[in-house]
Amino acid sequence: MRLLISVALLSCAGAMLSAQESQVVQIEPTPAKLTERPAPPAEGETIIPIGTRVPLVLLNSVSTKHASPDDLVYLESVYPVVVNGRIVIPPGTYVSGRVTSVKRPGRVKGKGELYVRFEQIILPNGIIRDLTGSVGALDGRSPEGFDKEEGRITSEGNKGGDAATIGESAATGATIGVIAGAAGSNAGLGLGIGSAAGAAAGLIGVLASRGPEAILEKGTQLDMVLDRGLVFKDEDLEFDNPLGAGRTRDAGNGPDPNRNRQGNSGRRFPL
Q1: Which of 107, 152, 122 is nearest to 134 (CA)?
Q2: List of E strands, the chain
Q3: Shortest CA distance to 51 belongs to which of 223, 237, 243?
Q4: Collapsed DSSP state (helix, strand, coil) of residue 107
Q5: C-beta of residue 202 within 8 angstroms of C-beta of residue 169
Q6: What is the pTM of this model?
Q7: Cβ neighbours for 203, distance < 8 A, ≥ 6 positions apart
Q8: What is the C-alpha separation between 205 and 193, in angstroms, rounded?
Q9: DSSP-derived 3-state class of residue 198
Q10: Whole-angstrom Cα distance, residue 53 to residue 61?
Q11: What is the CA 96 to chain-centroid distance, rounded?
Q12: Phi/psi of residue 66, nearest 5 degrees
């Protein structure tokens, strides 16, 4: 009898183990994602890879006040770009591009906006390639703002200038009011009226005028980032002087960081 009970218990245990084994979920290992690598260059070719930065200087000025979409911009490289120990873009290389979008600053709020893309490169030996590039960095001297994610160049805000305009107008009005009030034996009343009138005139001037424009001045330095690789034959990259002889043309003084703060630049509505 005991033997029969033991056999029955063993049978039940075996059935339970079999049921548990049948419920085990087999997890297939997820294959590791392979990082896509660019195709290696063919023999006798050199590839300037995507993401390469090319330091440039602007040869013409661009501003939201005068620029329109499709206006051309002209630049020149200022530092050699090296791939695999070889100079592939020497100083003095020309780059051209165009303005893709322009937005002027608003009269009450809103900053000026400027977008630029690069389209062609001309090496010093005359080799030309079309390219796709975007702005990757902006001259640190420039008062303009720069959004790296969107490539947007924005004008500097002018809240301080607006406050100064209203304050200066109020002060001028107060002075005139005091003089007029003194003549009428009521300097205090003249002061109040003059201050209010001057502040109102300054506010009207602020509301009727635009804020600072976004300007890329001649001589502004910036980085171009290649959005796709460039392929050259090795013979295309033969240069008489790969380090260049330096720029012989006047590239300008570049951006003035105090452009919007000097003199009466913050004054929008002179009395």
Answers
A1: 152
A2: 45-48, 53-58, 62-63, 72-77, 81-83, 86-89, 94-103, 113-122, 128-138, 145-147, 152-154, 215-216, 221-226, 230-233
A3: 223
A4: coil
A5: yes
A6: 0.65
A7: 166, 169
A8: 18
A9: helix
A10: 22
A11: 17
A12: -115, -20
CA dist 126 and 129 (Å) reads: 10
Q: How far is CA 80 from the centre of its chain?
A: 22
**216 and 102 Cβ atoms separated by less than 8 Å:** no
Token pair of 78 as six digits: 């200022």
Name the residue type at position 82: V
- Measure the CA–CA gap between 217 and 210, rounded to whole angstroms: 19
CA 231/CA 95 separation, integer angstroms? 16
Structure tokens at 240: 């008489």
Amino acid sitting at position 222: L
CA-nearest of 220, 263, 216, 264 to 65 is: 216
**DSSP classification of residue 150:** T
196-253 pLDDT tens trace: 554 444 444 444 466 899 999 999 999 999 999 999 999 999 999 888 755 556 677 8
- The residue type of 151 is G
